[in-house]
Write a structure and sequence with these properties.
The protein contains seven helices and two strands. The chain has 232 residues and is mainly α. A two-stranded antiparallel ribbon has the order 1-2. The longest helix is centred in the C-terminal third of the chain and has 36 residues. The N terminus and C terminus are likely disordered.
């Protein structure tokens, strides 16, 4: 009996099921976050959230301008535009900080050099326009009679109203919007080319996707084959 008890104490004790699941989840997350073939989940969320916000801002801005040109009152749209613009500026700061701390995945080695240079130039123009737009818009709104309003609340003023300076900044704001639309158009065409023509998985790097399953070192070939068959 004593010998049997001694043997039982020396048997390996299996970890609880919840602990095994947690460790496996962390391993899969680490595998996904350190993959060199795609962007991190945070980068993907920021990319598509920024795309949606920019589209809404552009539509709202041009609608507001059209109403003003027709002699209508666009004050409410202007305040909404400012509020969404401040939110977009905060997202942009987050995205830039994230980008500085997380190196993007390398482009395919088969991509021609001129395409790499073009991709870098377009990205630079997009980021430049995204910086100029909220900065010029905020400064221009600060110089208007009503100042900057966020969610209906006026923000503190630090400069006196100046109509001419405000109009100049709004002109820069509008020009940056045109440049941004053109750059995004080229960026979109290039992305679709990679998706439909090149088929080199460049587009898929930024597309929301399920995490790739991490290989299980303890799985037997038969088990691994069965798992693959089940996923197909």
């Amino acid at each position: 009996m004593a010998h049997a008890a001694y043997c039982n104490w020396n048997k390996p004790v299996a970890a609880p099921v919840w602990m095994q699941v947690s460790v496996e989840s962390l391993q899969r997350e680490d595998f996904h976050m350190h993959s060199s073939t795609g962007y991190t989940r945070t980068a993907i969320v920021l990319h598509w959230l920024m795309a949606a916000v920019i589209a809404a801002m552009l539509a709202l801005g041009w609608t507001m301008t059209f109403i003003e040109d027709e002699g209508g009152d666009s004050a409410q749209l202007f305040m909404a535009h400012m509020s969404i613009g401040l939110f977009a500026a905060a997202l942009l700061v987050w995205r830039i900080v994230w980008r500085l701390g997380h190196r993007p995945p390398a482009l395919p080695a088969t991509m021609p050099r001129w395409q790499r240079l073009a991709a870098g130039a377009i990205h630079g123009i997009v980021y430049g326009a995204m910086v100029v737009m909220p900065l010029s818009g905020f400064l221009g709104a600060s110089l208007t009679r009503d100042g900057v309003v966020f969610l209906g609340l006026p923000l503190p003023r630090f400069v006196a109203a100046d109509h001419d300076a405000a109009e100049l900044l709004f002109t820069i704001h509008g020009a940056a919007a045109i440049v941004l639309v053109a750059a995004i158009g080229l960026h979109t065409l290039a992305a679709l080319k990679h998706l439909w023509i090149d088929k080199d998985e460049v587009f898929e790097r930024m597309w929301p996707r399920r995490r790739a399953a991490m290989p299980n070192p303890g799985a037997t070939p038969a088990t691994a084959g069965g798992a693959q068959d089940g996923r197909s």
